[in-house]
Amino acid sequence: MTLFLQSFSMALRAISAKKMRSFLTMLGCIIGVGVVVALYSVAEAENQKKLEQLKSLSDNTITVYAYEYLPWGMVTPGTSIADKLSKYINTDLSSLTAGVAPQSYIGGQIVYGSKKTNPSYGYATNEQFSICSSNKIVKGRDLVYLDVKNSNKVCVIGSAMNDFLFGYKEPIGEKISINGMEFTVVGVYAQKDFSPKNPQGYSPDNLIVAPYTAIQKYVNKTLRIESFLVKAQDPFAVKEAIKMIKSFLKKNIDVENNKGYFDVYSQDDWTKEIEKQNKEDLIFQIIIAVISLVVGGIGIMNIMLVTVTERTREIGIRKAIGAPRRSIILQFLIEASVLSIIGGIIGLIVGVMGTLVYGKLKADLIAMPNPTIMIIGLAFSFIMGVVFGIYPAIKAARLQPVIALRNE
User: Fold this and answer.
1) Distance in angstroms (rounded) separating the CA atoms of residues 251 and 66
2) DSSP states of 228-281 as a string?
3) How many CB atoms lie within 10 A of CB 310?
4) Which of 238, 317, 333, 398 is the most exposed place for a label (fewest CB within 10 A)?
5) Does the pLDDT value for residue 71 go beyond 60?
6) Average per-residue pLDDT for the chain
7) Are 41 and 365 in contact (CB under 8 A)?
8) β-pairing verdict for 175-178 and 110-112
9) How many angstroms separate the Cα of 346 from the Cα of each of 139, 141, 205?
10) What whole-number distance in Å separates Cα of residue 200 and Cα of residue 218?
11) pLDDT band at 76 (very low <50, low <70, confident <90, very high)
């Protein structure tokens, strides 16, 4: 223990004697650890946000894309694949599904007084949208069948949209403009996303829904329904419902002859895809960190070789008065390890600060450093110091006292 403490004290004195050189030597470890901590923590926060957004849509949901390459004039009410699919799901699949809702982007601009926002997440849909997306009404009422049948110019808004447009004002009965056409607000959905709000950013609460028939009639006469949100009765019905929907679409859309397209997937498919992407990102980040730390380790080895050369006479004197080889090895190995650990600690601070700053800049993201990856980064930095410090330490220990003492 005494030998270790003496070696540690000598290492600190040697490092502090040449601060700038020591700092430049640590740069590789600082960059390696800082990059991996910041990258991993930010990527983890981004991916967690995506997963939360998927979960907020609804459990047991199925997304369907289906369209045909047909001239507009050939499509008459009740004959489009959208009409056929809706009828099929609501009748033949009623034992497996609880509802089906079209979800076509509205487009245009939402205006209320001096407030303007782009309805990037506004949907032309039907009265089953709330069921399919697990939204609940907290003010007013929801869309109903007669709103869709009669093309009523009404809409329901999310809590974030309500806060942005109306603040503390009562929204029910107020008229907002969608692409120049007035719609009456009849309801407000309950809040689902409790992260910091960004009025122009994505959030399941930053939405507006209106009857697709009203949107087609008054806002966008060329609007086509190509996307659907389907709610399965329970988790066990999801796979069977997907199988049945795919079978139906395969019979009704000639994909092989390029006359249409369809895709059917569940929320679980997206979740698995994100988790797969997470693993690939982690591998990529590990590679970046390893390369940076290896470069840092090589830098430490080079400086330690220079240090051995500079302190040859000191080594010769120590060996001449009886210092064992292990004490020489321990001295230089501890010095290399201390360099790498200090570099790793500084890298942790840089990575933590980078993570917090990034999270602060993105108002809708909560990015916090991952403790596990911090420990791994610091441990790997220490290992690099030991691995790349061994050769200089052994070289120092092998010096012959007579030859070392003759060195000028």
Assistant:
1) 12
2) EEEEESSGGGHHHHHHHHHHHHHHHS-TTTTSEEEEEEEHHHHHHHHHHHHHHH
3) 12
4) 398
5) no
6) 79
7) no
8) antiparallel
9) 52, 56, 40
10) 25
11) very low
Tokens 């329904």 correspond to what residue? Answer: 225
DSSP 206: S
How remote is the C-alpha of 167 from its chain's centroid?
30
CA-to-CA distance for 308 and 186, rounded, in angstroms?
80
What type of residue is 338?
V
Place of tokens 């840089």: 350
Overall average pLDDT of the 289-317 stretch:
72
Q: Report the C-alpha gap between 140 and 30 in whole angstroms.
A: 56
**What confidence tier does 151 reach under pLDDT thresholds 50, 70, 90?**
very high
Strand partners, 123: 105, 209
What's the pLDDT band for 223 if we cut at 50, 70, 90? confident
User: Higher pLDDT residue, 187 or 338?
Assistant: 187
Is the pTM for the entire model greater than 0.85? Answer: no
Long-range contacts of 402-408 (CB under 8 A, 24+ apart): 402/316, 403/316, 404/312, 404/313, 404/315, 404/316, 404/317, 404/319, 405/313, 405/316, 405/317, 405/320, 407/312, 407/313, 407/316
128: Cα within 13 Å, side-chain hemisphere? 17
Distance, in Å, from the CA atom of 382 to the CA atom of 348, rounded to the nearest integer, reads: 13
Residue 126 has what pLDDT?
92
Q: Which residue has the higher pLDDT, 95 or 198?
A: 95
